[in-house]
Specification:
Length: 98
């Protein structure tokens, strides 16, 4: 099977952040280093799972009120903490079953 050639090159963290800002993501100047760190550490593909609900599918722009980096970071942190609690609960159940 032949490999498919991608027509778009991947965007680096700075380019992806610039694209998101053009689409309406509000990033205050003080948050920009943190936003870049989130993109570099988590990857744009993973973060898209957090922001896709906030983007209008027709216009491809962020919806008003759901358009801040702070909100995106809060969602990522909530998910991380929830996942840690879930694994703690699974561990207790596993030990109880043994």
């Amino acid at each position: 099977m032949a490999k498919l050639a991608f027509s778009k090159p991947p965007l680096g963290p700075k380019d992806l952040l610039a694209k998101l800002k053009r689409q309406g993501l509000v990033v205050s100047p003080g948050e920009e280093p943190l936003a870049l760190a989130y993109i570099e550490f988590n990857g744009g593909h993973r973060l898209k799972g957090y922001w896709w609900r906030s983007v209008d599918q027709v216009t491809k722009t962020f919806k008003p009120g759901q358009d801040t980096f702070t909100r995106l970071a809060q969602q990522v942190e909530f998910d991380r903490k929830m996942r840690a609690l879930l694994w703690q609960a699974i561990e207790l159940i596993e030990l109880s079953v043994r």
